[in-house]
Amino acid sequence: MKKRGRLINTRILKFTQTSLLLLLALPVFAHGVAAGDADFIQRISGVAFMPYVYLGAKHMFTGYDHLLFLAGVIFFLYKMKDVALYVSLFAVGHSITLLLGVLGGIRADAYIVDAIIGLSVVYKAFENMGGFERLGVYINTRHAVFLFGLAHGFGLSTKLQDLSIASEGLVPNMLAFNVGVELGQLAALTIMLLAFQFWRQSPSFLKGAFTTNLIIMCAGFILFGYQMTGYFIA
Amino acid sequence: MNNIEPPSKNTLIKATVASVLAAAIILILVVLPAEYGIDPTGFGGATGLTQLNAEPTVTIEISDIIGGNEVLREVEIPGFGEPTPLPNPAVFQDQEEVPRTDVVTIVIPPESETEVKLYLREGKMAVYSWAVDQGDVYVDFHGHDASFGPDFFVRYKEQQEGAGGNGSLIAPFRGEHGWYWLNYNEYEVTITLTVTGYHDRVIDYGIF
């Protein structure tokens, strides 16, 4: 690779790592439902398909804890087949608990669930760092992604459960929301994959992978600590 | 996954510990102060992060009476939400006894004087109202602290020609607090005084 090309890729790596570090330092706002959207949900009654699709998409696209986990999942997935498989496992997991939560009325403590989501980020990053392999601990990643997907789904549903959603049209609206979540996930995934493809062409990818995952793991710890504090004081 | 050797256990342990430490530092310095107002190091307060989720507060001025003089003090109380205790004696005085009410009628002949006093312990309050039946009189509403001698007094309000007066008094010191009335008219004047409060007794000095 030409010297300039290598420099650019190293710069991309540094930029990504610095951005992640800066993001860690920003106040982690509780990514609930935005005020206007919450207002809408509590206000309306009856089927509102497209609005709920949009809300679901927006929720996933701005859900940095979900995206961090996804990024960890696809970090070392080179084949589209594998990407599709793992993302589907995640999607099925979070769809089950999202619908069980809102339609089935199964409640979970929002702080505990969000703390578990933080741990899911820690898990995947540690795995990407070769941590479990070195420790000789075998983890079936497919099972883990599905199980953590369940946790992520509860994270989605607890945000909605706090709002009084109209029972009229609840089922189609929640299905629409779920569709939206998948669409939002797809959109975020596409961007992430493009970035990864681009980055993987450079040798700095493998060199920087350990540190990048370390930073992601740090973000997971911050999320965990933030949510557990909320659980104890609120 | 990739086919390279995973890093050594040592590296992993060090990296994980570093990661946990960094997370703890960021949590304690930035996230917890900003989100919950938890600020063990004071860094959040110094940088203003704690303002992000701080309870709105209101600053009110409370006046204390010390030695007869008014002293102003600023007290910060929560803006809204849970009621907050404010046991400030300058504002609220809890009393064991029921307040007493006295109605005193004084008939002052022409060109005569009188004094009616309340014996109040320091910090005790009395609410009063007095009025003449006709004309007006000279009145000096004041307080004596006997421990300073019989001639020492503080003046609350003086009226050269007063037909009545209303108000409240929190005694700055233990002693006799009340009114000197002079009827300078050629006719008799009847003053009716009503007092409710925590005075020990009413002292009527009679006509002189």
Structural class computed from helices and strand pairing of chain A: mainly alpha
- Average pLDDT of chain A, to the nearest integer? 87
Got a strand count of chain B? 11
Number of domains of chain A: 1
| Biggest interface pair, counts | A-B, 30 and 28 residues
Q: Could you spell the SSE succession of chain B in H and E letters? A: HHEEEEEEEEEEE
Question: If you compute it from the alpha carbons, what radius of gyration of chain B comes out, rounded to the nearest whole angstrom?
Answer: 32 Å
Q: Globular, elongated, flat, extended or rod-shaped: what is the shape of chain B?
A: rod-shaped
How many E-type strands of chain A? 0
Shape type of chain A: globular
Short description:
The complex is a heterodimer of chains A (234) and B (208). Chain A is mostly helical and 234 residues long. Chain A has helices spanning 3-25, 35-43, 49-61, 64-74, 80-104, 110-128, 131-135, 141-161, 170-200, 204-233.
Describe the overall structure.
The complex is a heterodimer of chains A (234) and B (208). Chain A is globular, with a radius of gyration of 18 Å. In chain A, 80% of the residues lie in helices and 0% in strands. In chain A, helix 4 packs parallel to helix 6 (110-128). By secondary structure, chain A is mostly helical. Chain A has helices spanning 3-25, 35-43, 49-61, 64-74, 80-104, 110-128, 131-135, 141-161, 170-200, 204-233. Chain A has one domain (3-26, 34-233). The longest helix of chain A is centred in the last third of the chain and has 31 residues, at 170-200. Chain B is of the alpha+beta class and 208 residues long. Chain B has 3 domains: 9-53, no CATH class; 55-92; 100-207, Jelly Rolls (Sandwich). In chain B, 16% of the residues lie in helices and 46% in strands. Chain B is built from 2 helices and 11 strands, in the order H-H-E-E-E-E-E-E-E-E-E-E-E. Chain B has helices at residues 9-36, 43-47; strands spanning 57-66, 69-78, 100-108, 112-120, 125-132, 137-144, 153-162, 164-170, 175-183, 189-197, 201-207. In chain B, the strands form 3 sheets. Chain B has a 5-stranded antiparallel sheet, with no helix packed on it. A 4-stranded antiparallel sheet of chain B has the order 3-10-5-8, with no helix packed on it. In chain B, strands 1-2 form a two-stranded antiparallel sheet. In chain B, a hairpin with an 8-residue loop joins strand 6 and strand 7. The mean pLDDT of chain B is 88. Chains A and B meet through helix 7 and helix 10 of A and helix 1 of B.
